[in-house]
Design brief:
alpha+beta, 5-stranded antiparallel sheet, binds adenosine-5'-diphosphate
């Protein structure tokens, strides 16, 4: 039996038709040529809220919102004149009116048929309210996403999992417009990269390859970053990032302004450094020039004062005393200016070591005692149990310089019968404060703001107490260079407190560093090598002992001055000599020259180890004949390597 025969032999009754219609998932109804509803199914009742009896015989308009009724009538008429099949999804989206007055979004499919010579239409109606709601939500989300992408200042593009552009902002479009005009969405990443490469400059083959492959899904790195320059001299940073769903995001930063700013800053910094170096150079040569005649002035003034053969009369004695006083102040001013300019140019070497604060204060008190006695001021150090006072991490000389300035000011700006007290406190286990308290004249409130600025004498400019106004500025900068701070409070007419707060030295640092150094780092052939270390700072010597102990089996001898070091060198003939440059008395450089002049020590490699290790210092040092010129703080791996090769050289010269 063919299909036609099959369907002819299968006759359905009305009841069967109703049953079938009721089983359909969509609402279905049949209308005649006058738009009267002739048949409805169960879904129609449910969808519109009418019973079957309420619908049959009614005009279709019952189910159409009032505002569409007139237009709808005409459409139906037109449709009936030329009826065609319109299936679901063919775009007929309408509004329906429920019995309770609410409207629903519906999609309608129409199918005309001939009902015993009369035209009729079957309509299948689907509720698409939910679909519409989801569509609207999707549109909102899309609009939000586009808004967000658009608001990204950088050029931004999103590629789908096939590497076709799905979304980009106008900054991205602008960037590509010169090389790839027109629609971008849908273009492949390769096409975009190929166009962009024309515009880029200085892209080497490797970069080209990187640009081309950065978006490929088989490239394992999830993020790529390439910095390129364009032909019109812009600097771009192109960053690609794979997304978890296999897509690819590209962001392009225009760094032209940043790069230009960085170059300007670099230039300005270099110019400032050059100016500062020139200033320091000028001050140092000027101070030298001023010192020479000043030495003559002070020297001859002293000779006049002491001349027993032709003694000065009382008045001339007084005049010469004034010359000496003025000269001394001038000398002080020159030294202070030089010191300050060196500090500001970061040209001072700070050599941090554990400093015993009680010992430093004893030394200070001894130094200030004569001035205190002269001024009739009582000088006191508020004692604590020495064992309770931790050591501070500081450059001892510079720490004493700060306290010396506070102390001499406290005496200078005091009154006869007054008092100056040094006291120590530890506000936390890591910090120690030394406070200098005086019962002097205090500082006028209006002048306190500018204290610690160079050349600010806080009201003393025209007063009888001599000074330069630089001491406090130096004290502040020195404290900061050592990781400390300074501060003060003052009540005019009653007195002032000046204090310096410094980091407490943690005694375990040396041990910690030593523990980090691998043992046996120097080979067996180099064991038991004799090393002489000339260094005045005890903490540095202790450190070297720990270091050499950790590096191997060394025989270390140390000397605190170059003079002693030279004697030891001649007597012991060490394999290697390590020497500091800034030593009390003879410098490391002078010591080197003497060592080179003695035949027995001339071949010993001498390594300089110094805080004054700028590039030109290093060059000059190595030209002078140092084996190597190393900077403090020491880089252990570099030191180890230099020491190893110096020993090798020394052993090769001596022979096995
Ligand atoms: P100066 O050489 O003038 O003493 P400083 O820089 O040491 O320079 O101090 C700056 C100014 O701060 C001083 O001129 C003085 O006016 C004020 N000053 C500093 N210490 C004290 C103090 N202990 N008591 C009163 N005034 C002080």
């Amino acid at each position: 039996m063919d299909t036609q025969q099959l369907s002819a032999s299968f006759q359905l009754g009305d009841a069967n038709v109703h049953q079938i219609l009721d089983a359909a998932p969509d609402a279905m109804l049949v209308v005649d040529a006058r738009m009267a509803i002739r048949l409805v199914n169960l879904q129609t009742e449910k969808l519109f809220g009418y019973s079957r009896a309420e619908l049959i015989g009614q005009s279709l308009e019952l189910l159409i919102p009032h505002r569409y009724r007139a237009g709808h009538g005409m459409q139906v008429e037109r449709y009936l004149r030329a009826p065609t099949l319109r299936t679901m999804g063919s775009g007929l989206e309408l509004s329906g009116l429920r019995k309770d007055g609410t409207e629903i979004a519906i999609e309608v499919s129409l199918s005309p048929f001939d009902n015993h010579g009369e035209p009729a239409v079957t309509a299948a109606i689907r509720d698409i309210t939910e679909r519409k709601r989801l569509q609207a939500a999707k549109n909102v989300a899309l609009a939000r996403l586009s808004g967000a992408v658009e608001s990204i200042q950088e050029a931004f593009a999103l590629f789908d999992e096939r590497d076709n552009l799905a979304l980009c902002n106008s900054a991205y479009r602008r960037l590509l417009a010169p090389v790839l005009p027109g629609q971008l969405v849908g273009r492949s990443y390769q096409e975009i990269v190929d166009a962009r490469v024309q515009e880029l400059e200085l892209v080497d083959a490797a970069q080209r390859a990187q640009l081309r492959t950065s978006s490929r899904p088989d490239v394992p790195t999830s993020r790529t970053e390439i910095n390129v320059r364009t032909r019109d001299e812009r600097s771009l940073r192109i960053v690609g990032q794979r997304t978890s769903d296999g897509g690819f995001v590209e962001t392009i930063w225009d760094l032209t302004d940043d790069a230009r700013l960085a170059a300007d800053l670099r230039e300005a910094r270099l110019a400032a450094e050059a100016a500062s170096a020139a200033k320091t150079e000028f001050l140092s040569s000027m101070s030298h020039e001023v010192r020479t005649p000043l030495n003559a002035i002070l020297g001859f003034a002293q000779l006049l004062q002491r001349d027993k053969k032709r003694p000065l009369d009382q008045v001339h004695h007084e005049y010469v005393a004034q010359i000496l006083k003025g000269g001394a102040l001038l000398l002080r001013l020159i030294d202070d200016i030089l010191d300050l300019s060196r500090i500001e140019a970061r040209g001072v070497s700070i050599s941090t070591e554990p400093v015993d604060v009680c010992e430093a204060l004893d030394e200070l008190r001894a130094g200030l005692a004569p001035t205190a006695a002269q001024a009739g001021v009582q000088l006191e150090v508020a004692h604590q149990r020495r064992s309770d006072v931790p050591r501070v991490a500081a450059d001892r000389t510079r720490f004493l310089q700060i306290l010396g300035n506070f102390g001499s000011n406290a005496l200078k700006y005091n009154r006869p019968g007054g008092k100056v007290t040094f006291s120590i406190s530890t506000p936390s286990p890591e910090r120690l404060v030394v406070m200098v308290t005086d019962t002097g004249i205090g500082i006028p409130a209006a002048k306190q703001d500018l204290l610690f600025q160079p050349f600010q004498r806080a009201g003393q400019e025209a007063g009888p107490i001599q000074g330069t106004g630089i001491g406090l500025a130096i004290a502040k900068r020195l404290a900061e260079l050592m990781g400390g701070t300074v501060g003060f409070r003052s009540t005019p007419g009653q007195g002032s407190d000046f204090w310096v707060e410094m980091p407490v030295h943690s005694s375990s640092v040396i041990e910690e560093v030593a523990a980090l150094i691998p043992l046996q780092a120097v080979s067996d052939a180099e064991r038991r090598a004799a090393v002489l270390y000339i260094e005045d700072n005890p903490a540095n010597i202790t450190f070297m002992e720990h270091l050499l102990d950790a590096l191997g089996n060394f025989d270390l001898t140390s000397a605190r001055t170059a003079e002693i070091g030279l004697e030891i060198a001649r007597a012991k003939l060490p394999h290697v000599i390590i020497v500091d440059i800034n030593l009390p008395g003879m410098s490391g450089l002078d010591a080197l020259q003497i060592l080179q002049s003695w035949p027995e020590t001339a071949k010993i490699p001498v390594i300089a180890l110094t805080a004054a290790a700028k590039e030109h210092d290093r060059r000059r040092g190595e030209e002078a004949g140092f084996y190597r010129y190393l900077a403090k703080p020491l880089r252990i791996d570099e030191f180890e390597q230099v020491l190893g090769s110096a020993l090798q050289q020394a052993r090769a010269q001596v022979g096995p």
